[in-house]
Amino acid sequence: MTAMSITHEIQQNLVQPGMPGSLEALSGILQGLDGAALSPGEAIRDLLAAEWVLRMDRRLRACLKTSHLPGLKTLDSFDFTFQPSVSRGQILSLHELGFLERKENVIFLGPTGVGKTHLAISLAVEAARRGRRVFYSTLYELSQSWLEAERQGRLRERMNFLATASLLVVDEVGYLPISQSGTNLFFQLVNRRYERNSTLLTSNKSFRQWGEIFGDAAAAAAILDRLLHHCHLVQIAGNSYRLRGYADLEMPEDRPPVITPRRGRPRNPRPEEGVH
Ligand SMILES: Nc1ncnc2c1ncn2[C@@H]1O[C@H](COP(=O)(O)OP(=O)(O)O)[C@@H](O)[C@H]1O
Ligand SMILES: [Mg+2]
């Protein structure tokens, strides 16, 4: 059998089970073998690895489509030297995703612009790479989606979808308050996920301000009780990365945007109550 016909046979064997990654890498790998740049073992390894890489990439893309993530951020682009309050060791260890296996939660706390969303997305991307079902939403979008789902008579379905995601990222807890029914549903969601699936939250507010976010101190306490039981807390204190070119600029304290208050709610937290 000639080398050409063997190659043809290998190609057929890669097409039939659908191994396009290996197929694409094949001619380069054969050249490597011919020139003795690769040993037979290395060639087989590279052939299979090419397929694996392609599949992982497809899986990631599919997951990113359904995850609703607002962009692609990874740890490679996170500058730890800019944010010394972030422990590189803790973040790297979280990226090993043991917390997902153990159904533990992660909370990033800190003022705006310090990288909370960046790190949350980076963890979600890592989980997606490993084939986990990930879903991202801000707390406000979540509460809006419940209103919409209720209008369509699909609230139960929506709650089931959110409760069963392997990793649920709830970003921006604290920028906008949510309604009483939103608070009740969020409590139900946290309760259903407790010890079953991991939830990752980011917030610019200290826990004692969560009563204001949820409009109900008892509900906030019950939510925190479940979230914090098995939880990795990452507190980030530092300057906004977005404003890094403006070191000399006098910034006002970190405040959420001014919003129309609901009755009985403070307009904004007192300055000394921010997360520092
Ligand atoms: N330490 C960092 N290294 C690199 N980019 C960063 C860092 N911190 C923040 N960023 C970038 O700055 C922007 C704001 O960060 P973000 O994660 O949205 O902040 P937060 O959610 O805390 O308000 C994003 O584009 C993010 O990628
Ligand atoms: Mg953010």
Quick description:
The protein is an alpha/beta fold and 276 residues long.
Describe the model:
The radius of gyration is 24 Å and the shape is elongated. It starts with a helix and ends in a 41-residue tail after the last strand. The chain folds into 2 domains: 3-66, no CATH class; 71-242 and 251-273, P-loop containing nucleotide triphosphate hydrolases (Rossmann fold, 3-Layer(aba) Sandwich), CATH 3.40.50. The model is unreliable at 256-276 (pLDDT under 50). The protein has helices spanning 3-15, 20-34, 40-67, 88-94, 98-101, 116-129, 139-151, 155-164, 180-193, 210-214, 217-229; strands at 105-109, 134-138, 167-173, 198-203, 231-235. Helix content is 49%, strand content 10%. The chain has 11 helices and 5 strands; from the N terminus they run αααααβαβααβαβααβ. By secondary structure, the protein is an alpha/beta fold. Strands 2-3-4-1-5 form a 5-stranded parallel β-sheet, with helices on both faces. Bound molecules: adenosine-5'-diphosphate and magnesium ion. The site of magnesium ion has 5 residues, from helix 6 and strand 3.
Give the topology.
Layout: H1 3-15, H2 20-34, H3 40-67, H4 88-94, H5 98-101, E1 105-109, H6 116-129, E2 134-138, H7 139-151, H8 155-164, E3 167-173, H9 180-193, E4 198-203, H10 210-214, H11 217-229, E5 231-235
Parallel strand pairs: 1-4, 1-5, 2-3, 3-4
Helix pairs in contact: 1-2, 2-3, 7-8, 7-9, 8-9, 9-11
The structure holds adenosine-5'-diphosphate and magnesium ion.
